[in-house]
Specification:
The complex is a heterodimer of chains A (about 350) and B (about 240).
Chain A lengths: L1 H10 L4 H20 L8 E5 L1 H5 L10 E5 L6 H16 L12 E4 H6 L8 H12 L2 E4 L1 H18 L15 H24 L5 H9 L1 H13 L1 H4 L3 H4 L4 H15 L4 H12 L2 H19 L1 H9 L9 H24 L3 H9 L2
Parallel strand pairs in A: 2-3
Antiparallel strand pairs in A: 1-2, 1-4
Chain B lengths: L3 E3 L1 H4 L4 H9 L6 E5 L5 H8 L10 E5 L9 H9 L7 E3 L7 H5 L5 E4 L11 H10 L4 E5 H7 L4 H10 L3 E6 L1 E2 L5 E2 L3 H8 L11 E3 L8 H11 L9
Parallel strand pairs in B: 1-10, 2-3, 3-4, 4-5, 5-6, 6-7, 7-10
Antiparallel strand pairs in B: 8-9
Classes of the chains: A mainly alpha (about 350), B alpha/beta (about 240).
Chain lengths: ~350, ~240
């Protein structure tokens, strides 16, 4: 949270909800880690994603967890899932989402081998991107890291778009970039799909999350894909050969998988030296987290009827805040940052 | 061509004499690591060294105990001092409870990167902390351990880039899901080729694959294939 704090001090702002969310996250992670501390194994990790992974949890948050298995399969994993579910439920009462994306076994092999193509699925894409952008290991930190290394290796090392004739080294991993863009658009489409399937039940909070926290995931992906340009590393320039270069590029992006999306966004904002952009982005996001942290306003967001939303202050206020957030990130990516506008122009659309 | 040989423990667990004898039979072997991984083996090894026939091995190292069960740390250190000064002492970081003691070994102390069962020495960042504490220590890159942590071998590459100047020897083996040292499989062989160019020609390769005597030749071939000698031309 170092860059966020720097921005807050520079602006003389008071982003108390951001700080509170980070503190709550660390408290909840500590409680969850203690609850599963004895469930250690060199072939699996218990991973949380969602607001806990982003460092934005409130006491009203759920705990989207996965048993990430990267090694021999074992029928006992199935029994372990039940035990983990009970233990996590003893800390976080709210149940995981009903889509089945979380709260069960995820095989590292599927995340690594089924990237795009006919065997990829909405669930697999979601788990893969969330593992990269917003995950924390409660146990098995090395297993989480190992799977991330492998996934990034697929994106960066093994799936170069074209063979280089001149030794030119591509700094933008197109495969990763395309998947990140695809995921952002999938989240948008899924929002519409859930509106239809669930007859708008719970639409308000999903709509607001799409405007803030889902958008931040996309931003994480864009910045990660542009990492070589945004955060030039001597390891890249000093690579002995092309293979080593791409492994080092994957390694650079790997380090960003330990940086929460909002913190990564703050790093980019710091580089653009635009106080207004910083204010637009982080004050609105602070407002978003403040509303979610309040049980009463969160419930209103969860239950507000589609037709009555604009008259509901919790929803209407955040809708206005989301416009400021969008204005801030649009200016960051299209105008204010020294590098992002040209990168977006060159790689973002066509 | 890099000197190559086996850890005595890999060929003959608990019987270093047999581990040495087996390597006398193979002409290609020019390097050897005397293993005292279990601490009760160390006094026997130290007493036996003067009579061991090791002249045909230009490179000899000794692997310090990985755990202290029957000996105190000071006793282990004192015994290791009785061995020839030219022999690097390969050590796991969790043996080194008293830094001031081990710092005295200087470059003879050769710290090995570890697998995920250990709590330190596993990553570049953890090794960096260790080498700050032991600034003169040398480095034993265990390729199997590094691959267990990161199958893409990017971590191993980073270790070689950052600690390459300290590199004293390389441990080679496959590593199983429970940390056991196994013969090189095809995936390990393919993985190791990605870092071969960063391993100098003079650097000894010590094989830790646990194999039967009749498999020695085949394992030497497999290691040569995984770490070809001309690979470092690009480095």
């Amino acid at each position: 949270m170092e860059s966020i704090i720097t921005l807050e001090r520079t602006l003389g702002a008071n982003w108390s909800a951001l700080r509170a969310a980070r503190e709550t996250t660390e408290e909840m992670i500590a409680e969850l880690t203690a609850a599963v501390a004895d469930l250690q194994d060199s072939n699996f990790a218990i991973v949380v994603t969602g607001s806990l992974g982003r460092g934005e949890a409130t006491r009203g948050s759920d705990a989207d967890w996965l048993l990430l298995v990267d090694g021999p399969s074992d029928p006992e994993h199935g029994l372990l899932v039940r035990e983990i579910n009970e233990r996590i439920g003893s800390v976080v009462a709210k149940e995981v989402g009903r889509t089945g994306t979380f709260g069960g076994i995820v095989a590292g092999h599927e995340l690594v081998h089924y990237i795009a193509g006919t065997r990829d699925s909405n669930e697999n894409l979601t788990r893969r991107i969330l593992l990269l952008a917003e995950s924390r290991a409660l146990t098995g930190a090395f297993v989480r890291e190992r799977v991330i290394h492998n996934v990034l290796s697929r994106y960066v090392v093994y799936d170069r778009s074209v063979q280089s004739r001149s030794g030119f080294r591509q700094s933008i991993p197109h495969f990763l970039l395309n998947d990140v863009v695809r995921y952002w658009r999938t989240m948008g489409s899924d929002y519409a799909s859930k509106m239809w399937e669930r007859q708008r039940e719970g639409w308000g909070i999903r709509n607001i999350k799409l405007r803030f926290s889902r958008k931040v995931l996309f931003i994480w992906g864009l910045i990660a894909a542009f990492a070589a340009e945004l955060f030039p590393a001597p390891e890249l320039a000093e690579s002995a050969n092309e293979d080593e270069y791409y492994r080092m590029l994957a390694s650079l992006i790997r380090t960003l998988t330990d940086v929460p999306p909002l913190e990564l966004l703050a790093r980019a904002v710091l580089d653009c030296h635009d106080r207004e952009v910083a204010e637009l982005i982080f004050s609105s996001y602070d407002e978003f987290l403040g509303v979610l942290a309040n049980a009463e306003s969160r419930e209103k967001l969860e239950k507000v009827a589609f037709e009555e939303a604009l008259a509901e202050p919790a929803y209407a206020g955040l809708r206005e805040a989301s416009k400021r957030f969008r204005e801030g990130v649009t200016r960051l990516f299209f105008d204010a940052h020294p590098k992002l506008p040209s990168l977006i122009r060159q790689f973002g659309v066509f | 061509m890099r000197p190559i040989g086996f850890s005595t423990g890999a060929l003959a667990k608990g019987d270093f004499r047999h581990g040495v004898a087996l390597q006398h039979r193979e002409e290609r072997i020019q390097a050897i690591e005397l293993s005292a991984l279990r601490d009760h083996e160390l006094p026997l090894l130290v007493d036996a060294v003067p009579a061991l026939e090791l002249r045909r091995f230009p490179y000899v190292s000794v692997h310090a105990p990985s755990r202290l069960q029957t000996l105190a740390e000071e006793d282990v250190f004192a015994m290791l001092l009785r061995l020839p000064e030219a022999w690097p002492v390969i050590a796991h970081a969790d043996l080194l409870h008293t830094p001031s003691l081990w710092q005295a070994l200087g470059a003879r102390l050769c710290i090995e990167n570890m697998d995920d069962r250990k709590t330190t020495g596993r990553t570049v960042e953890e090794l960096r902390t260790l080498f700050a504490l032991y600034p003169d220590a040398s480095f034993c890159l265990d390729l199997g351990h590094a691959r267990q942590i990161d199958p893409t071998m990017t971590s191993a590459l980073r270790m070689l880039r950052e600690f390459g100047a300290r590199l004293r020897q390389v441990h080679v083996s496959d590593v199983g899901t429970r940390g056991e040292h196994l013969p090189l499989g095809v995936m390990a062989r393919r993985a190791f080729t990605h870092v071969a160019h960063r391993i100098p020609e003079r650097c000894p390769l010590i094989i830790e694959s646990v194999i039967a005597a009749e498999a020695i030749g085949g394992e030497l071939d497999a290691v040569r294939l995984a770490l070809p000698s001309n690979a470092n031309a690009a480095a």
